[in-house]
Structure to design on (678 residues):
């Protein structure tokens, strides 16, 4: 057995384990704990069928497109059957009754998805893009057919659709603002540190000190600090600055992002081959020309790595903004935590994870493009 | 073409050059040679203002460089360095076209010039769109030379240009440089710590030691018995007499009298060292050279 096959077989075993665990939980209302239904009994024939399809993604002897395609079909079947099972379980119950997703579902879904992704890795780029498009299409089709309408998570989403969309946009705006502010701080500091290497040490120490403060403590500490500042300079209130709300969230997140950005810009600038810089000077390039034509292009690939890290961190850290009244998806998560409403927590947490993964993938693509230019 | 007048350079407390006076006439291939730390690179960098003199003047094309804009001065002087300093993110063609682009040439003129230069340094035109990372050491050094020649400067500065390549490539590149120098007649200032390289390439040698110019002149004069000891030891390689003979063409000792009919003949372009070697291997003291002859005593007389 090859190493890849062993890994995929373990993932298949995880799907099987998921099917043996509580797959759906049925509860009389959204706040009470429910009773679990194991996957095999809840999904009926679809459970073994999906498992069989996913098993085709394990052996390397089968063509990768066949294995990945069959695995995708198995995943789709698992999802659809879960929707059908939820609808069946709620039949004849009071309207407040909920069919929630159990731990078995999440384990099975994640393991199955990882299995398909692992098998798809053997496909050419075009094949992987086509497979991803197909997966999205199938998902959209199932959604359109209201396959998932009975699931508690979907019920919760439909009840709060507008709020979730607003939170998503707000989350992106907060992360974007924090990133912009961090860049505004990191770029001039990195340039100064590059010009005066002796100043770079203290700068790194100062930016690094922020990282030592636990994130929640920093978010919280900014509230009294900003309140004090606003008491001294009430005019700042006119600029839309407040002690709670977006200001502390953006400031604290920017504080965390400044270090990776600063470090990657400085690293990129100093990484430029000294011989290339010396040659540029000896050929009569001006200092501005050297920076524009030699230092910056050579710094970009290093900088792109730092930027990717910062974007992913921004999306994650802004979540804590929910605690200081900044809104965003974090607010949904913390509201769900306060009410002990799992579905509400997931409504906030799932998009955060999806955003972070998407941002990472996108930034990686940009990074690779920049990397091939050097 | 280049004139150093009583130039001294001090970096902080240390003196890199003290009171160097040297004249490099147009068309010369002047090699600056000396041990590391002798100030040879510093002397060269004065020419395009990469180093500023603490005292004295540097004249290039008759005018003091101190009064010239450094960027414009540097664009008018080719520069080749040991580590090539090629821009890793730009193609070979873009690297070669750097100075013409800085001078504002239009792109078709630059492209034509790049093609000419690739031919001049004997590189495959197919390399033009490659990145420097894909080149061998010798190819990269040729690209560096082409880049320095791009805007057709009348002066070329070369800082240990062949220090980082293997011996065979180095020999090829030296031959290439001699050919290009002969074809273009440019004034070249070349820094090396290799005495053999200095003697092979130079039409003028300047020997530096501890920041002072200790000897200067045509290569053969610096290994002659009356040359300063330091220069003779450095350049002579333990056999200054043979080195001197190897720098002199056989014709300088030619005798008008014809050689005996059975005398071995010497090839055209041979040096006196070649003649001595021929005599040693044939056991004869007279060789045929053109219409005349070459006699052992005449060869030996030139070694003194």
């Amino acid at each position: 057995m090859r190493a890849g096959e062993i890994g995929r077989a373990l993932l298949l075993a995880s799907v099987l384990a998921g099917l043996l665990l509580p797959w759906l939980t049925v509860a009389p209302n959204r706040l009470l704990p429910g009773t679990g239904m194991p996957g095999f009994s809840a999904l009926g024939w679809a459970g073994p069928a999906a498992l069989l399809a996913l098993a085709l993604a394990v052996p390397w002897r089968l063509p990768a497109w066949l294995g990945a395609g069959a695995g995708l079909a198995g995943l789709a079947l698992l999802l659809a059957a879960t929707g059908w099972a939820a609808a069946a379980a709620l039949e004849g119950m009071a309207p407040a009754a909920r069919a929630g997703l159990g731990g078995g579902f999440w384990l099975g879904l994640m393991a199955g998805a990882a299995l398909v992704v692992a098998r798809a890795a053997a496909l050419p780029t075009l094949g992987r893009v086509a497979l991803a498009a197909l997966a999205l299409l199938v998902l959209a089709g199932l959604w359109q057919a209201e396959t998932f309408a009975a699931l508690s998570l979907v019920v919760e989403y439909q009840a709060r659709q507008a709020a979730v969309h607003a939170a998503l946009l707000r989350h992106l705006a907060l992360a974007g603002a924090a990133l912009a502010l961090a860049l505004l701080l990191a770029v001039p500091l990195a340039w100064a540190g590059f010009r005066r290497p002796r100043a770079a040490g203290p700068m790194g120490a100062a930016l690094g000190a922020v990282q030592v403060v636990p994130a929640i403590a920093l978010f919280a500490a900014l509230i009294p600090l900003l309140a004090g500042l606003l008491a001294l300079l009430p005019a700042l209130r006119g600029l839309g600055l407040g002690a709670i709300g977006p200001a502390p969230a953006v400031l604290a997140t920017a504080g965390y992002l400044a270090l990776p950005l600063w470090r990657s810009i400085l690293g990129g600038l100093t990484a430029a081959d000294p011989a290339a810089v010396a040659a540029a000077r000896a050929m009569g390039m001006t200092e501005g020309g050297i920076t524009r034509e030699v230092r910056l292009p050579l710094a970009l690939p290093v900088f792109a790595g730092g930027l990717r890290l910062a974007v992913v961190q921004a999306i994650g850290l802004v979540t804590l903004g929910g605690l200081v009244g900044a809104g965003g998806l974090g607010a949904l998560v913390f509201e769900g935590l306060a009410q002990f409403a799992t579905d509400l927590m997931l409504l906030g947490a799932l998009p955060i994870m999806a955003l972070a993964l998407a941002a990472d993938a996108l930034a990686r693509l940009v990074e690779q493009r920049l990397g091939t230019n050097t | 073409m280049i004139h150093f007048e009583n130039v001294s350079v001090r970096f902080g407390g240390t003196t890199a050059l003290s009171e160097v006076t040297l004249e490099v006439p147009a068309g010369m291939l002047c090699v600056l040679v000396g041990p590391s730390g002798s100030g040879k690179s510093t002397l060269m960098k004065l020419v395009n203002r990469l180093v500023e003199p603490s005292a004295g003047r540097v004249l290039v094309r008759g005018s003091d460089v101190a009064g010239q804009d450094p960027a414009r001065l540097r664009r008018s002087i080719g520069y080749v360095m040991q580590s090539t300093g090629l821009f890793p993110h730009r193609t070979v063609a873009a690297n070669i076209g750097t100075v013409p682009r800085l001078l504002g040439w239009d792109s078709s003129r630059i492209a034509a010039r790049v093609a000419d230069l690739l031919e001049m340094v004997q590189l495959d035109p197919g390399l033009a769109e490659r990145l420097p990372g894909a080149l061998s050491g010798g190819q990269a050094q040729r690209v560096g030379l082409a880049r320095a020649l791009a805007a057709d400067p009348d002066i070329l500065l070369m800082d240990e240009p062949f220090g980082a390549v293997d011996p065979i490539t180095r020999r090829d590149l030296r031959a290439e440089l001699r050919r290009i120098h002969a074809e273009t007649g440019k004034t070249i200032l070349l820094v090396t710590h290799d005495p053999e390289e200095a003697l092979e390439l130079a039409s003028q040698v300047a020997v530096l030691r501890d920041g002072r110019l200790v000897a200067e002149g045509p290569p053969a004069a610096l290994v002659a018995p009356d040359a300063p000891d330091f220069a003779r030891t450095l350049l002579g390689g333990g056999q200054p007499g043979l080195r001197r003979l190897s720098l002199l063409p056989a014709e300088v000792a030619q005798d008008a009298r014809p050689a005996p009919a059975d005398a071995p003949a010497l090839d055209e372009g041979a040096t006196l060292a070649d003649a001595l070697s021929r005599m040693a291997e044939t056991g004869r003291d007279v060789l045929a050279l053109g219409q005349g002859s070459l006699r052992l005593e005449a060869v030996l007389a030139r070694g003194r």
Notes: The mean pLDDT of chain A is 88. Chain A has 16 helices and three strands.
